[in-house]
Amino acid sequence: MTTNNDTSTSAQTQSRKAEHIRICLEEDVQCHEITNGLERYRFTHCCLPEIDRNDIDISTQFLGKSLGAPLLISSMTGGTEQAGIINRRLAEVAQVYKLAMGVGSQRVAVEKPQVADTFAMRKYAPDVPLFANLGAVQLNYKYGVDECLRVVEILEADALILHLNPLQECIQSRGDTNFRGLLDKIADVCFKLPVPVIAKEVGNGISAAMAEKLLAAGVAAIDVAGAGGTSWAKVESERADNILQRRLGRTFADWGLPTADCITNIRAIAPDVPLIASGGLRHGLDVAKAMALGANIAGLAMPFLQAAVVSEAALVDLVELLIAEITTVLFCTGNANLNQLQHSDSLVQSKAM
């Protein structure tokens, strides 16, 4: 039975999703004082690659699934009419280019089943990895394995992202801030769910020490989602309904661990873990740097969102550019494929830091 309180909560969640899209597109919510750290690295140019650019292969695999390029359309949205259009466009382009895709938090689809179709993208992307998504903290707010299964089923997903967002919840008006005992509940989901679980931050990064605990709990992959891109503290500050939350968001606008540091530190303690680099990646050069540092694939959100609200053609242009940029890096470093890039010494740390 749906109560008035449940209806009110789902309406608030749905409204929040619409506001998130508007704020990300219209307001300055990017980090300014902290960067993703990738600018500290450069590639050594190879003036004689000894390869044909047309032979370069940027295909890869992630969690046993084949990808045409090492790209993840990072989790963004769902739950509203506009979000459904955005997700459909993203899914159709993901299918054409064989890219992985995540959706935004599906909590609203659990609370309001009639919007589940704005997440149900398998019909548009039958052959690519799709990742369901829930906030891990909801496991402390009456959610459990059943709800996790539900969002996986809605998407017909290949994996479930449990996102970790303590700072965002602190800034968010009426945020869910009880994170006590959450690791054991994540472990229970990892054990009982029939698909892999991916632990993901939302823009403040995952440290090596925290990654180690998550992996011990049974998480199959890590999405570092480091600092240097969209600041969700800023986003929540923009929609805060009181001055305290607004000022709190501004104070912590540049909080977090740079993406590059997360990649290298996690890779040092977990050489084989499937690792997603995201957080402030804006073009194919960023993607290539992240791959050379040790990531398996790279996730972008803001560039895909900006293109998706325009048209599917704009998304095609973006993906074609990203592929051209990644391919150009491989060509101009003398690497024929991603595996060669990752095992080369093409990426060096800049002296000016």
UniProtKB/TrEMBL annotation:
It comes from the Bacteria. It catalyses: isopentenyl diphosphate = dimethylallyl diphosphate. Substrate binds at R16, K17, S105, Q106, R107, Q168. Residues 183-344 form the FMN-dependent dehydrogenase domain. Its main location: cytoplasm. Involved in the biosynthesis of isoprenoids. Catalyzes the 1,3-allylic rearrangement of the homoallylic substrate isopentenyl (IPP) to its allylic isomer, dimethylallyl diphosphate (DMAPP). NCBIfam families: IPP_isom_2. Homooctamer. Dimer of tetramers. Belongs to the IPP isomerase type 2 family. This is Isopentenyl-diphosphate delta-isomerase. It comes from Calothrix parietina FACHB-288.
